[in-house]
Amino acid sequence: MPGLSPALRLLQAPLGCRVLPKVYISGKPARTPTSPAEQAVGISVLFTSFLAPAGWVLHHLDHYKKGSGA
User: Fold this and answer.
1) Any idea what the Cα angle at residue 42 is, between residues 36 and 46, rounded to 5°?
2) Residue 27 in 3-state DSSP?
3) Rg (CA), the chain
4) What is the pLDDT of residues 20-49, one digit of tens each?
């Protein structure tokens, strides 16, 4: 099976050991703190991006139940 050898090499490639650079984690506070208004806007956008599509589907559920009618 000559075609199997390249496939096996592709599957074994992620298993190879690689040296990764050390990550430095800092416990310092942020240079520019986020204001409460910025936090509120961010949380609002986050929740809207998740809840708006779900609300759309629930609002049009009867239309989806009927199907295309064809």
Assistant:
1) 145
2) coil
3) 25
4) 678 778 788 888 999 999 999 999 999 999
